[in-house]
C-alpha cells in the first residue's frame, strides 16, 4: 500500500531435462513477469529457445476435442488443481490415448443421441405443420399429375388478393383450408407450363410452403397418427440414450476436467518457451518476481531439479539498464482486498513508475467520500449495496465492480444518515449533520475545504515523487515545493476569510511579500537550480540564449499553474451541486407523485411514482455521480502528482496466454 510491490530480477539456468517441471513450477507461482530473452543481449547473440509449433497445434486440437466432449456431456467447467508438473512431450501421448478410449466407448451413444434429437425435432415440426391441414387430405392423390402442379402452405390473409391479381393472366385455383394467426392455409393449383410464374407470384405474396411428407404415406390423419407413434418411440430411445450419457458424465467428467487443465498447462509450458533462451543443453529464464517469493521459488526449483539449477537475483537499483532508464521495472499493485478493485480505475489513468507513489488507496478513500457526499441516501445506498452483493456472488468476472458497488453503497448510506434522508423522505430519521438543501452556503464551504485538502494532498504526493525520482529541479517550480507553498499561503487565507469573514492586515502584508518571493523563485527556478548545484551551460552564448527562453517558459508555466490551482479548487463545488441536485430530483419526484395521486385519487399511484422515481435516480444519477467523481480524481487530484509511463506487471499465465493462439 502507498507503493508498488518490491520486485527483483531473476535469471534461472536449468538443464533441458527439467525445463517442463521448472516451467510448471513458475506457472504455479504465477507472480513472475517474464522478460523475452530475444530482447536481451543473450537474444542478440542467438541464444533463443525454439518452440515445437506442431506440438502446440496438436494440443490445440486436443483442447477442442475435450471442450466438445464436456459440452456434449454437460459437465460444468471447474478449475482443477494439478498436483504435478506437466511435461508436454509426454502428456501428448497420454492425452491422445485417454481421449481415444473415451471416444471409442461413448462416440456411438452420443452420436445416436444427436441423431435421435434431430429426428425428434424434425418430426415434431412436421406434426405441427400437418395439424394445420384437413384430416382427410391425401397427398398421394395429388401426386403424379401430368398437367397440373400444386403447392400447400401459409399465406397472409391480406396477400390473397395480391396473389389473385398476380395470377390473373394464367389458369389457377385456390382452396382455403383454414387460418392460423392471420394467415390462411391454402392449396394452390396451376398448370405445369405456368409454374415458374406461380412460384414468383407465391414468393412475392410471402407464401410459406408446407413440404409434403414423402416418407409417411396416407391421409393427413393417418400421417399424424403414425408420426405421433414414431415420436413416442423416439422419445423412449432418447431417454435411454440420455441415461447412458449421464453415466458417461459421472464416469468421465472429473477425468476430462483434469485432462483439460493438463492440456492448458502443457500449452502454457510450450508458449512460455518462446520467452526462454537456450545455451547447449540448458535453458535460460529471466523475469521480475516479488522479493517476498524469491526464497520459496528458489527452494522449489532446487527440489525439482535435484539442485541442478542456477538462480541469480539482482535488485533493480543494481542494474545499469534500470538506472539509465533503458529497462522499466513492471508495477505490481499491493493493496488490501477492499482497496484492490480500484486498481482498475487507477490503471485507466495510467501505470505509475516503479519509485512513484502508488495512489490507489488515496483514490479509493476519496472516491468513496465524494460519492457518498453527492449520493447520500440511506435507502438508495442500501440498494446499491445489495446490487453490488449480487454482482459479487453471481458474476465472478465482475467481482471487483461488485465490491466497489458495495463500498459505494455503504458510503451513500452513511451520508444518508448524516443528511437524514431515506429514499428521498426527510422526515423519517433526524439529520446527524445537515440537510443539503437547507444549508447551501455551508455545504459550498465544506466542499471547497475538501477541494483545498485534496489538491494539497496531491501537491504533497508530488513532492514525495520528486524526491523519490530525484527530480530536484522541479522543487523550485510552480509544480513543486515553491508552487505548493504559494498555494497553501493563498488557500489558507482564503479559507480563513471564507469561514470567519475577515483577514488581518498583517496577514495580507505577509501574503503579498510571500507571494512576490515565491513567484520570483518560480520564475527563476531553472537558473537558481543550476546555481545551487553548480550546473552551467557549456558556453557563454548558449547560457545567454537559454536564460531568455527559460525566463519566458517559466512565466508562462507560472500563470498556467496558478490558473489551474484556482480551477482545480473551484471544481470541487460540483460536489455540492450534485448533492443539491440529488435533493432536487427527489423534490421533483414527490411533486409528480402528488399530481398523479391527486388525479387518480389513490395512494397506490403515489407510491408507484415514488418507487419508479427512485429507480431512475439510482440508475441515472448513480452513473452521473460516478463519472463526476472519477473526473475529479483524474483532473483535479491525479494531475498534481501522477507521472505515469510505467509498465504493468503481467503474471506468468497472463503473459504467456497472450502469445500465440489462445486456448
Polypeptide structure, described:
The chain is an alpha+beta fold and 663 residues long. Among the domains are: 79 residues, Alpha-Beta Plaits, CATH 3.30.70; 155 residues, no CATH class; 100 residues, no CATH class. The chain contains 22 helices and eleven strands. The strands form three sheets. Strands 1, 2, 7, 8 and 9 form a five-stranded antiparallel β-sheet that branches. Strands 4-5-3-6 form a four-stranded antiparallel β-sheet, with helices on one face. The C terminus is likely disordered. Belongs to the V-ATPase 116 kDa subunit family.
Comma- or semicolon-separated keywords:
663 residues; alpha+beta; Alpha-Beta Plaits; five-stranded antiparallel sheet; four-stranded antiparallel sheet; 22 helices; disordered C terminus
Low-confidence stretches: 537-545, 659-663
Overall number of strands: 11
The helix content is 55-70%
* Number of H/I helices: 22
Average pLDDT level: 82
Write down the Rg: 38 Å
Q: Report the major sheet.
A: 5 strands, antiparallel
Distance between the termini: 35 Å
| Proportion of strand residues | 5-15%
Q: What is the overall silhouette? A: extended
Content-based structural category:
alpha+beta
Amino acid at each position: 500500500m502507498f507503493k508498488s510491490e518490491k520486485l527483483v530480477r531473476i535469471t534461472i539456468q536449468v538443464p533441458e531435462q527439467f525445463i517442463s517441471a521448472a516451467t510448471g513450477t513458475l506457472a504455479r507461482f504465477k507472480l513472475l513477469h517474464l522478460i523475452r530473452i530475444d530482447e536481451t543481449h543473450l537474444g542478440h547473440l542467438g541464444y533463443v529457445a525454439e518452440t515445437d509449433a506442431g506440438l502446440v497445434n496438436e494440443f490445440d486440437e486436443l483442447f477442442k476435442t475435450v471442450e466438445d466432449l464436456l459440452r456434449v456431456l454437460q459437465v460444468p467447467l471447474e478449475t482443477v488443481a494439478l498436483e504435478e508438473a506437466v511435461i508436454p512431450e509426454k502428456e501428448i501421448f497420454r492425452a491422445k490415448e485417454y481421449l481415444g478410449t473415451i471416444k471409442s466407448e461413448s462416440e456411438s451413444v452420443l452420436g445416436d443421441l444427436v441423431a435421435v434429437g434431430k429426428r425428434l425435432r424434425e418430426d415434431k415440426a412436421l406434426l405441427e405443420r400437418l395439424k394445420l391441414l384437413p384430416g382427410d387430405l391425401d397427398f398421394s392423390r395429388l401426386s403424379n399429375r401430368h398437367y397440373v402442379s400444386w403447392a400447400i402452405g401459409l399465406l397472409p390473409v391480406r396477400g390473397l388478393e395480391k396473389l389473385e391479381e398476380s395470377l390473373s393472366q394464367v389458369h389457377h385455383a385456390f382452396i382455403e383450408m383454414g387460418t392460423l394467426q392471420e394467415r390462411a392455409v391454402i392449396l394452390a393449383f396451376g398448370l405445369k407450363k405456368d409454374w415458374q410464374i406461380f412460384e414468383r407470384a407465391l414468393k412475392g405474396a410471402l407464401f410459406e410452403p408446407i413440404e409434403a411428407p414423402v416418407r409417411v404415406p396416407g391421409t393427413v390423419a393417418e400421417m399424424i397418427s403414425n408420426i405421433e407413434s414414431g415420436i413416442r418411440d423416439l422419445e423412449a430411445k432418447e431417454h435411454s440414450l440420455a441415461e447412458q450419457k449421464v453415466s458417461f458424465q459421472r464416469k468421465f467428467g472429473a477425468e476430462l476436467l483434469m485432462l483439460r487443465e493438463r492440456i492448458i498447462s502443457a500449452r502454457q509450458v510450450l508458449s512460455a518457451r518462446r520467452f526462454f533462451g537456450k545455451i547447449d543443453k540448458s535453458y535460460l529464464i529471466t523475469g521480475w518476481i516479488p522479493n517476498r517469493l524469491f526464497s520459496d521459488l528458489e527452494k522449489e526449483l532446487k527440489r525439482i531439479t535435484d539442485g541442478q539449477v542456477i538462480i541469480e537475483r539482482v535488485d533493480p537499483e543494481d542494474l545499469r539498464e534500470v538506472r539509465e532508464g533503458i529497462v522499466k521495472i513492471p508495477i505490481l499493485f499491493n493493496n488490501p482486498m477492499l482497496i484492490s478493485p480500484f486498481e482498475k480505475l487507477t490503471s485507466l489513468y495510467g501505470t505509475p513508475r516503479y519509485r512513484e507513489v502508488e495512489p490507489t488507496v488515496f483514490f479509493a478513500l476519496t472516491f468513496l467520500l465524494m460519492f457518498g457526499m453527492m449520493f447520500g441516501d440511506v435507502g438508495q445506498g442500501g440498494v446499491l449495496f445489495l446490487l453490488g452483493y449480487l454482482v459479487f456472488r453471481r458474476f465472478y468476472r465482475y467481482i471487483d465492480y461488485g465490491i466497489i458497488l458495495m463500498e459505494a453503497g455503504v458510503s451513500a448510506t452513511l451520508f444518508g444518515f448524516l443528511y437524514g434522508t431515506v429514499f428521498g423522505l426527510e422526515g423519517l430519521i433526524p439529520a446527524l449533520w445537515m440537510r443539503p438543501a437547507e444549508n447551501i452556503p455551508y455545504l459550498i464551504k465544506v466542499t471547497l475545504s475538501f477541494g483545498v485538502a485534496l489538491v494539497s494532498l496531491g501537491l504533497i504526493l508530488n513532492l514525495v515523487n520528486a524526491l523519490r525520482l530525484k527530480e530536484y529541479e522541479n522543487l523550485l517550480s510552480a509544480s513543486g515545493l515553491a508552487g505548493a507553498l504559494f498555494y497553501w499561503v493563498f488557500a489558507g487565507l482564503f479559507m480563513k476569510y471564507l469561514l470567519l469573514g475577515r483577514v488581518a492586515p498583517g496577514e495580507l502584508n505577509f501574503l503579498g511579500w510571500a507571494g512576490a518571493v515565491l513567484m520570483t523563485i518560480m520564475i527563476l527556478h531553472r537558473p537558481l537550480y543550476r546555481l545551487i548545484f553548480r550546473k552551467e551551460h557549456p558556453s557563454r552564448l548558449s547560457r545567454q540564449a537559454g536564460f531568455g527562453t527559460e525566463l519566458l517558459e517559466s512565466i508562462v508555466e507560472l500563470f498556467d499553474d496558478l490558473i489551474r490551482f484556482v480551477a482545480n479548487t473551484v471544481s470541487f463545488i460540483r460536489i455540492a451541486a450534485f448533492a443539491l441536485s440529488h435533493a432536487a430530483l427527489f423534490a421533483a419526484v414527490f411533486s409528480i407523485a402528488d399530481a398523479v395521486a391527486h388525479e387518480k385519487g389513490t395512494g397506490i399511484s403515489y407510491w408507484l411514482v415514488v418507487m419508479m422515481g427512485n429507480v431512475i435516480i439510482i440508475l441515472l444519477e448513480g452513473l452521473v455521480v460516478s463519472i463526476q467523481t472519477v473526473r475529479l480524481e483524474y483532473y483535479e487530484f491525479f494531475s498534481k502528482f501522477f507521472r505515469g509511463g510505467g509498465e504493468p506487471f503481467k503474471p506468468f499465465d497472463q503473459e504467456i496466454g497472450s502469445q500465440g493462439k489462445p486456448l
